[in-house]
Amino acid sequence: MQRSHDLLKRFEELKEKVDIVPVFWNDGKVVWLNVTQIPWKEEYVETDSVDRLAEAIRRLEIRGAPAIGIAAALGIAMAAYNSPNNAEAIIKSSLEAANVLSKTRPTAVNLFWAIERMKKKIEELSNLSTEDIKDGLLTEALKIQVEDIEGNLRMGEIGDALLEDGDSIVTHCNTGSLATGGYGTALGVIKTSWRKGKRIFVYPTETRPLLQGARLTAWELKREGIPFKLITDSMVGYVFSNKLANKAIVGADRILLSGHVVNKIGTYTVASLSYLNGAQFYVAAPTSTIDAKSTLAEVKIENRSEDEVTTVLGKLRIAPEGVRALNPAFDVTPPQYVKAIITERGIATENLETSLKKLLYLK
Ligand code: MRU
């Protein structure tokens, strides 16, 4: 049986390869890099409170589909770890934590996937000693993180086959180390090709309204030394129609078996405009982002506060007092715009439904 110290050892090895990990375990606490403060400040926050962790996910101090799944898994392990030493109390507090964390954000399926995986583990371990339940839950949470990082590194290698020397690529939102267990999905693919010596140029969109592209992707690209020029979301059409970019790669919060891609608001614009102008549109995401159960009608799109649109990051009002605003955090890209979906198990392309099913080992 694997123990938490084995996973912690593997995590330390992987950390070397991925430059930055935005959320991690530290001796009964969850620690995260508060990405709302990037690029101004690198502030790490630590807590042993599930409510504080849930607040961090809600306020996007921890964000990005894989990262919030990992944070929730670590939060459940934390609730168990800090419980009194009796099986009933451990199970009760870990299930309560699962419930609190499941109410933080509705769209990214990785959150629910990770919580379900932890709940299954709670059931499996319930007859063991208290020490084994606590360590078993921590081991599972760390496994979720380690598998995510290893998957990202594999996805990078797999996706690299689709990128060519000289490519110029639009990306949207932030899909790098800051959004995952470490390294990244779409940005991970770009990093891998760049590290292998391909000359790549990137156009990250600023990603209104919360500027994950301008603040986070630009910060990561700069650290990596990848050449790029930041664009506003409204420049995407200009960039493709003037042939400044020949490809787009984005991440995903939920991918349906039909090939519909739910991702940061504005992704549909990038996809349709790349398609209209003959550029390839790729999605990179771990298989934990594929939702084999839901229909499109069942996907809940998160609506966030109107202030996020009427102000710049809550600091400067840009619309007259009392103006109402729409603020859906995600949109849906239909499969006809998606050239390929890159995962850690391989690439889904052509008939997306058939190839996604294959990647999930479904009939
Ligand atoms: O609201 P956010 O910042 O959590 O949205 C994140 C995205 O839409 C990302 O593109 C997606 O989660 C993929 S992250 C690897």
How does this model look, in words?
With 363 residues, the chain is of the alpha/beta class. Helices cover 43% and strands 15% of the residues. The protein contains 12 helices and 15 strands. It has helices at 4-18, 50-58, 65-81, 87-102, 109-125, 130-160, 186-195, 212-224, 236-241, 267-276, 307-310, 352-359; strands spanning 23-26, 29-33, 44-47, 168-171, 201-204, 247-250, 254-256, 261-264, 280-284, 290-291, 311-312, 316-317, 330-333, 340-343, 346-349. Strand 14 and strand 15 form a beta hairpin. The protein is globular, with a radius of gyration of 20 Å. The mean pLDDT is 98. The site of 5-S-methyl-1-O-phosphono-5-thio-D-ribulose (MRU) has 18 residues, from helix 3 and strand 8.
Bound molecules: 5-S-methyl-1-O-phosphono-5-thio-D-ribulose
CATH class of the largest domain: Alpha Beta
Termini separation comes to 31 Å
- Strand percentage, roughly? 15-25%
Assembly state: single chain
Number of helices: 12
Looking at the structure, the CATH topology of the largest domain is Rossmann fold
Q: Which descriptor suits the 3D outline?
A: globular
Q: Give the strand order, joined by hyphens, for the main sheet.
A: 5-4-6-9-14-15
What does the main sheet amount to? 6 strands, mixed
User: Stretches where pLDDT falls below 50 for ≥5 residues?
Assistant: none
**SSE series:** HEEEHHHHHEHEHHEEEHEEHEEEEEH
Question: Keywords for this structure?
Answer:
single chain; alpha/beta; Rossmann fold; six-stranded mixed sheet; 15 strands; globular
Structure summarized in a few sentences:
The protein is built from 12 helices and 15 strands. By secondary structure, it is of the alpha/beta class.
